[in-house]
Amino acid sequence: MGGVFIGIVITAMVCSLVSRDFQLKWWLMAPLGASAAQVFAVPGSPMSQPWPIVGGHMLSALSGLICLHFFGQTSLAAALAVALATVLMLYLRALHASGGGTALFMVVSGTADWHFILFPVAANAALLVLVAIIYHWLTDQKYPQRQINAPSHQPALHRFDPSDLEAA
Predict the structure, then answer these.
(1) CA distance 159 to 76
(2) 3 and 135 Cβ atoms separated by less than 8 Å
(3) If DSSP codes are grouped into helix, strand and coil, which group holds residue 160?
(4) Who contacts 4 (Cβ-Cβ below 8 Å, separation ≥6)?
């Protein structure tokens, strides 16, 4: 897919140039590959919108750093990082499936630098979203897409009149 290729190559090139200035070891997150596939293949998905992509990755990196700090580079920290990231993303309406990969990456790689949340995590995600906006605009596709809130569900008993119960 052209969009996925363009999104990753531009993000990689820009972040590589910036990382040379800052002499950072990591400059492109692996979970961004899944985000690229999602934002270009299913741009209408609620998880493919800008806030879930950027916010989801940042919240997940934060979760991974917190769990790594308290539990070290352990299986417990890895599991807690993904679980905490999921809870935070759900609570803040930023659910992005690739965020789980970001949380896990933080623990597995042992990345303990708090600046990592801004670069490369936020920078990667924001650049990918920017490329997606431009790409979809150039290909005459609507992105980002406004999400419609689902109606609240009422308990089953509220769907019946008292007369329905009497008739039964």
Answers:
(1) 44
(2) yes
(3) coil
(4) 36, 37, 40, 41
SS3 content of the chain, % helix, strand, coil (to 5): 70, 0, 30
Instruction: Enumerate the H helices of 23-139 as residue ranges.
Output: 32-41, 50-71, 75-91, 98-109, 123-138
Tokens of 27: 């400059």
Residue 133's nearest CA partner among 70, 40, 64 is 40
Dihedral-angle region of residue 65 (phi above 0 means left; psi in -120 to 50 means alpha; beta otherwise): alpha
If you average pLDDT over residues 47-63, what whole number do you get?
Answer: 97
Of 20, 34, 50, nearest in space to 102 by CA? 34
Q: What is the pLDDT of residues 106-164, one digit of tens each?
A: 999 999 999 999 989 999 999 999 999 999 999 999 999 886 766 665 555 556 666 76
The overall average pLDDT reported for the chain is 89
Token pair of 160 as six digits: 């019946």
Q: Cα separation of 33 and 9, whole Å?
A: 11
